[in-house]
Amino acid sequence: MERKYKVLFASTGINFITAIIYVWSVISKTLVNQLNWTSKEASLPYTTLTITFVIAMIIFGKIVDSKGPTFPAILGSILIGLGVLFSGLALDPTIMIITMGVLVGAGSGIINVATTATAVKWFPPEKKGMVTGIVVAGVGLSSAFYSPLSNYLINTVGIAKTFIYLGIFVLVLALPLSLLIKRPPKDFVLKGEEIDKEENSQKDKDWKYIIKDRYFYKMWFMLGLSSSAGLMIIGHISNIAKIQVSWEAGFVLVILISIFNSLGRFLGGFLSDKIGRLRLARLLFIMQGMNMFLFTIYGNVWLLALGVAVAGLCYGGGFSIFPAMASDAYGSKNFGMNYGMLFTSWGLGGVIGPMTAAAILDAFGSYNYAYIVAGILLLISIVISFTIKNEAN
Question: What are the structural domains of the chain?
Answer without folding.
Answer: 3-182+196-385 (1.20.1250.20)
